[in-house]
Amino acid sequence: MNINKISEQILHNWPIKIICLVVAIFLYIFHQTSLVDHKNFVVPLNIVENGQVMHVQKLTDSITLSVKALPEDMSNIHVSDFSAILDLSYLTESGEYEIPIQVNTNDSLKQFETLEIKIKPSATLMVKVEKKITKYIPLEVSVSGEPAYGYKLEEVSVEPSSVAVVGPQSIVSKIDKLYTEKVVISNAEVSFSTETKYFPMNKIIYVPEKGPYKVTVAITQMKSNKLFNDLSVNVINLSENLQIDSSIPTISLTANGNVLFLEDYSPSKNVLQLDLSSVTESGEYELPISVNLPSGLTLENLSLDKVNIKVSEKEILEETENTQVQEE
């Protein structure tokens, strides 16, 4: 009898009672929610790959943690209190795996009674991995700028000339060259040595020896050719009793030397010479032209290396006055 009365009382106006229960639960949840504070923290994701494989595709650099705590506790929670790790070290074969993200917290957070941490949007990541290989790859210096006017980059070298690269097989096997950070040679006039480091070209590969590397830069003066037209030939060692009866043509000369020197150089009258020391009597002769360039210049071309000349004896004038004196 009592049981029937209790059942009747429970079932009496049961729809209203269910609605009240739902409202009460909602109010309780709302009240509990209002007692905690909510905040998102962006935490760097550390990838650990101490095993036989490495990830192939680009992975996210960070994850978002959704943290709930009491308002008075939340003010004491900082992003530095969390660390996130994606550990691939236990994998041994190439493939695609769903890897859980490990979140660690500082001991200081353990004292909080209310603390809820969730990883957004997911607590796992799909990761494609391949076998890890090591390969020595040539190192090339990245050069920036141009030497000063009149100078050129003759050579650039780096020590070591190659470095070890660690990474997934499909990526490392295709790399044939690595580059350094830029070495500036703008307006350089002399050779010099400097230091530089490895320039990251791919976040997936790992270069254990990142530098500094020793770089040697060789700067030299630029050389060029310059044409000098209509140069006169200077006659030397002509006997006192001889004279030249023919004209000597002008000659064009092409010299090679440093650009800066050539720009200021003007040939002297002795740059081209015709030596008549071997001529002792009248006649026609074919004689070579001698070229006297200053140190640093070399002869590239001469429009005429020999000339034909006619030589005759000078006429000796009688000293009439002296003769007349002697006759008297």
Descriptive report:
It is built from 6 helices and 21 strands. It has 328 residues and is of the alpha+beta class.
Helix-strand blueprint:
Blueprint: H1 2-11, H2 14-34, E1 37-48, E2 53-55, E3 62-69, H3 71-74, E4 82-87, E5 95-100, E6 102-105, E7 115-120, E8 124-144, E9 151-159, E10 162-168, H4 169-172, E11 178-184, E12 192-196, E13 213-221, E14 223-231, E15 234-236, E16 242-244, E17 251-258, H5 259-264, E18 272-275, E19 283-291, E20 298-302, E21 306-313, H6 320-327
Parallel strand pairs: 1-4, 8-11, 15-18
Antiparallel strand pairs: 1-3, 2-8, 3-7, 4-6, 5-8, 8-10, 9-13, 12-13, 14-17, 16-21, 17-20, 18-19, 19-21
Using brief descriptors, characterize the structure shown.
328 residues, alpha+beta, 5-stranded mixed beta sheet, 6 helices, 21 strands, 16% helix, rod-shaped
Summarize the structure.
The chain has 328 residues and is α+β, with helices and mostly antiparallel strands.
